[in-house]
Amino acid sequence: RNLKSRLTVVLMLATLISAFGSSFQYGYNVAVINSPSLFIQQFYNTTYVERYGRPMEDSFLTLLWSLSVSMYPLGGLFGSLMVAPLVNKLGRKGTLLFNNIFSVVPAVMMGVSEIAKSYEIIIVARVIVGICAGLSSNVVPMYLGELSPKNLRGAIGVVPQLFITIGILSAQVLGIRSILGNNTGWPLMLGLTGIPALVELLLLPFFPESPRYMLIQKGDDKTARRALQRLRGSEDVDREMDEMRLEHQSEQAEGRLSVLNLLSLRSLRWQLISIVAMNMGQQLSGINAIYYYADSIYSSAGVKESNIQYVTVGTGAVNVFMTITAVFIVEAAGRRLLLLIGFGICCVSCALLTVALTFQSTEWMPYVSIACVIVYVVGHAVGPSTIPYVVTTEMFRQSSRPAAFMVAGSIHWLSNFTVGLVFPFMESGLGSYSFIIFCFICLATLFYIWLVVPETKNKTFLEISQMFAHRNQVDIQVGNAPLPTVSDEGQT
After folding, report:
1. Which of 324, 29, 294 has its CA nearest to residue 167?
2. Degrees, nearest 5: CA angle 450-455-456
3. Where would you find the membrane-spanning parts of this chain (predicted)?
């Protein structure tokens, strides 16, 4: 029972290549537009003047800019809706390779936007690169969760999030004025997102497709066994093959589930509510408000204009460091504890940040608000940022996983889009009290996790569904026992 699988070279490289090729870009494109925003807005204005002979009105510029920011999560939402059909048709690895179209094309578009004298190109490209992020943020955790042995699933499941934070940090570093965050460098900075995609296109084809996909969805026993042997670095993979067959057997009654089946299936009710709660909590807890508007928080905290970019990079570095820590502690501490601690820290930070921003007049308060932002980032990196993806992979079995990721992803991006769109208005209307709202959301999510979400570390996918079976008031039987009857709609 306690056969611990080790991290093999093949598994490690597959993890690094898919995380760099896909997850890195998601983070990069979240942050890439923050530092050079002034110069990109100047370009919008200059282009407008050249076309119409008069400067753009401020309100129109604000609208165009908030579109440039928020079209990205909107694209992410479209990408999430494509997850289930694509991973079922092309496989996990196949989808990641196909997804690079949505990165290379907009990279070229954004790179030539200035020469083409068109700001529309940037806005359209942000939607397309958003589709890429929406697909990769769901497919990479699914692919890696299915490649990993159960004792490494948590640690490997955190790696995509680690690359998202490295992507954010890279964009922040390149965005320093003296590097690319200036009026000549920004088109190149936006276009660089195509490079990780090319790396992935060249290297990922040499690595195996998910053995679970091959066995359970394609019924291809030979390829699944070969893939598993390569991933485990050992000929003896019988136990894991048997485990997959058992899972396959217990699911045959359900068939491949569509999102509608998923919503109506009693045996998955609490898993579904849980991933919705966690993904909403993750995004509505204010992390993106802090990223999108870090610069303005720092300047209202009294940091010198010329130093803001370095504080931002510092925050990004803290985020990467804490996510690396999460990779190493997630198997020991467990998922549930990290979620509780993370949301707890975020809740307290938001409350303190509100106080600090309200009483800016004292000279040391600005430093308190910077500290709050950094502590918040630490809390978010340890739990809310990293763990929901791991848990989404773990709470669902093969037939329901694509549909579950589609639901989780749609909630994730819808919430992200909402925050990006609503926060500027919240900020102008509520001022420093905006963060009280985030504080309550963190608290509510914390209570939910404490009451409902079980610990899933070191459990097989089947054991986890049995833990939920009690709460869902259904029974899951395996082996030769009769399976619980499920309506035939599930069959495809």
Report:
1. 29
2. 145
3. 63-84, 96-115, 121-144, 156-180, 186-207, 272-293, 308-330, 337-359, 365-391, 403-426, 432-453
> Tell me: the pLDDT tens digits for 315-338?
899 999 999 999 889 988 999 999
pLDDT above 90: percentage of residues in the chain: 65
Query: What is the distance between the terminal CA atoms of the chain, rounded to a whole angstrom?
Result: 34
Q: Which amino acid is at 334?
A: G
CA distance 92 to 178: 40
Instruction: In whole angstroms, give the CA distance from residue 302 to residue 313.
Output: 17
Tens of pLDDT, residues 268-292: 999 999 999 999 999 999 887 776 6
Whether this model's pTM surpasses 0.90: no
Q: Which residues contact 160 (CB under 8 A, 6 or more apart)?
A: 18, 19, 22, 23, 137, 140, 141, 144, 389
- 305-333 vs 365-382: helix axis angle to the nearest 10? 30
d(CA 327, CA 132): 24
Report the sign of the C-alpha dihedral through residues 393, 250, 11, 457, in that order. Answer: positive
Q: Hey, what domains does the chain have and what are their CATH numbers?
A: 8-207 (1.20.1250.20), 258-473 (1.20.1250.20)
User: Residues 6 or more apart from 170 whose CB is under 8 A from it?
Assistant: 24, 27, 28
pLDDT of residue 206: 97
- Per the prediction, the chain carries an average pLDDT of 89
In angstroms, rounded to a whole number, what is the distance separating the alpha carbons of residues 104 and 109?
Answer: 9
Helix runs in 334-395, H state only: 335-358, 365-382, 387-395
Residue-wise pLDDT for 46-94, tens only, equals 999 999 999 999 889 988 988 898 899 999 999 999 999 999 999 999 9
Given a contact cutoff of 8 angstroms between Cβ atoms, the answer to whether 209 and 91 are in contact is yes
- The two structure tokens encoding residue 489: 């709609």
Nearest Cα neighbor of 487 from 257, 313, 181, 275 is 257
> Residue 296: how many CB atoms within 10 A of its CB?
12
- What length does the chain have? 492
CA distance 391 to 175: 33
Q: Are 87 and 141 in contact (CB under 8 A)?
A: no
Q: Return the closest-CA partner of residue 331 out of 154, 117, 212, 80.
A: 154
DSSP SS3 for 456: coil
